[in-house]
Each structure stands twice: as C-alpha cells, then as structure tokens.
Design brief:
This protein is an all-alpha fold. The protein is built from 14 helices and no strands. Helix 7 runs antiparallel to helix 10.
C-alpha cells in the first residue's frame, strides 16, 4: 500500500513536469498567434501578450495576397509528401535485407553505414558534388541527398528484428519469397514504426531550408522555410529603415507572426493524426504479463 501511494506521487510529479514542459513549448506559439491577430497600432505600442488586441485578420490577408508565399506553401507540401514516400521506400529497402543472417557482407555494410553517421564531407565538398551531378538549381537536390537517414534505418531494422522469425519461416515454407514476405508480413506489422519514421522525415523536410539556401537559386522552388527566412529578413530591413525615419510604421511584426503561423501550423496538424500509431509503437515494446 505504501509503495502504491509512493508510485502515485511519483506519477503525479512526472505528469506535472510534462505539463510544465508542454506549456513552455506552447507559450511562444500562443504569443506569435496573438501578434498575428493584433492590430498595427497595438503592435507598435507593444501591448500584445498572449491575447490579441484589436482583433483583425489584416496580417493574414496580406500574407495570402503574396502569390509567391502561397506557391511556396503548396510546393513545400508536395515536396514533403514526395520526400516522405521516397525516404520510407529507401529506408525499407535498406533495413529489410539486413535482418537476414545469410546476407553476405552484412557486418561490412553495417560498418560502412554507421561510419556515415559520424563523418561528413562538409558543406563545400557537398556543394561541389551537387554541381558535378548537375543538381544545382534542380528540385531533385531537395529530394535525393537526404532521402535516407541511417538513424531511422537502424530504428526500422531493430523493429524488424523484433518480429519472430517463425512468421518468416512459415511463409517460406508456403512458398513465399522475400518480397512477398515483406509486403504481407513485415510491413503490416510495422505500421507504428513506419508512421513514426514518416513523421520524422516529414518534419525534417518541412523545416529544412539550408539545402535550398545553398543549392537553389530559382525562387519558384523555394521551400516555405526559406521563403519565411527571406520574408523576415526583408521585414527586418523595413524596420531598420523605419528606425532611421525613412518610412511610416507598418505592421511588419504582424506579417512576421502570420508568416510563422502559416509555416508552423500545417506540420502541427499531422501530430494528432499519427498519435494512435505512437501509442501502438510504445505498447508493442512493453512487457506483457
């Protein structure tokens, strides 16, 4: 009984810590959201905290009027979907053969792939490589170089190792080949981990902008994060001009906040959709009594 009460107290403390941590993560987003819905005068006077002042959709209206920003938003959504599917395909192809003990050179392949996690050529050699492959200013440069994460591959491989070999052996006795076993046994049982990896890849691509900044010069293929970077830089230049007295005050803070919301909210919507798979992934590794 004493141990039970002590366990409950520990659970309450952990729950409180998690709640505080989540709250600290949410407050900056709430502040930005309040700024995006506040009027110009309220932003100039810095009256905004966590509640909009003089509620208005003016900032969102100006952002949506920017054809380049909306086009970048749609392009990033399409790019994220393509990259996620390609990355999952490559991760499955890379991790599935490594669960077979009969694979020749298995240890060597594992060693080579692990080596790439700790050593990288660097930005300049990567740029020269992309230039040599004629991928500079090519949309494929946003897909091919990062289509496989070794860390995610190790996660999937470890998960596939946990599936009993008896399932594979029974399918082999029934005449099933490696591809049929993968499609009919391993992939259906791997939905939780695949959903988790899909989220990792999607978030990484949606938030990525450094590759586009280095390799892309065509504004038509600029991802939303690079576009947001350019918008904030341009608005900061306007604010600098305002401080020098060249122009009248504008709602640059509101435009920044609205742009950030457009670049943040879409990826946040995915989390509730994949929550059940996260829960299933956690319970699969639990000890059953």
């Amino acid at each position: 009984m004493v141990k039970s009460n002590k366990r409950k107290k520990i659970d309450l403390v952990l729950a409180a810590i998690c709640f505080i941590f989540i709250l600290l993560c949410i407050l900056p987003i709430v502040n930005i959201f309040a700024r995006s819905l506040s009027s110009t005068q309220a932003l100039i006077k810095n009256k905004v905290s966590f509640f909009p002042v003089d509620f208005t959709f003016e900032s969102y209206y100006y952002v949506l009027k920017d054809v380049a920003f909306v086009r970048s938003l749609w392009w990033t959504a399409i790019l994220t979907l393509i990259c996620t599917l390609v990355s999952l395909f490559m991760t499955i192809l890379c991790s599935y053969p490594l669960i077979y003990d009969s694979l020749k050179g298995k240890r060597l392949l594992n060693g080579i792939m692990l080596l790439t996690m700790y050593f990288s050529a660097g930005a300049i050699p990567n740029y020269l490589l992309m230039k040599q492959l004629n991928l500079i200013n090519n949309p494929l440069v946003l897909i091919i170089p990062n289509c496989l994460s070794i860390f995610n591959m190790i996660l999937l491989r470890s998960f596939l190792y946990g599936i009993p070999d008896s399932l594979r052996e029974s399918a082999q006795l029934d005449g099933g080949g490696p591809v049929a076993i993968l499609l009919k046994i391993y992939l259906p049982l791997s939905k939780p981990v695949l959903a988790t990896l899909a989220l990792f890849y999607a978030v990484g691509r949606w938030n990525g902008f450094s590759d586009a900044l280095m390799y892309m010069t065509d504004a038509k293929f600029a991802p939303i994060q690079l576009k947001l970077y350019q918008v904030i830089n341009n608005l900061s230049a306007i604010e600098t001009a305002q401080s020098e007295g060249f122009t009248a005050p504008t709602a640059s803070e509101g435009l920044k906040a609205a742009s950030v919301m457009f670049a943040t909210v879409p990826i946040l919507i995915i989390y509730p959709c994949l929550q059940k798979y996260f829960i299933a992934g956690v319970t699969l590794g639990a000890i059953k009594e």
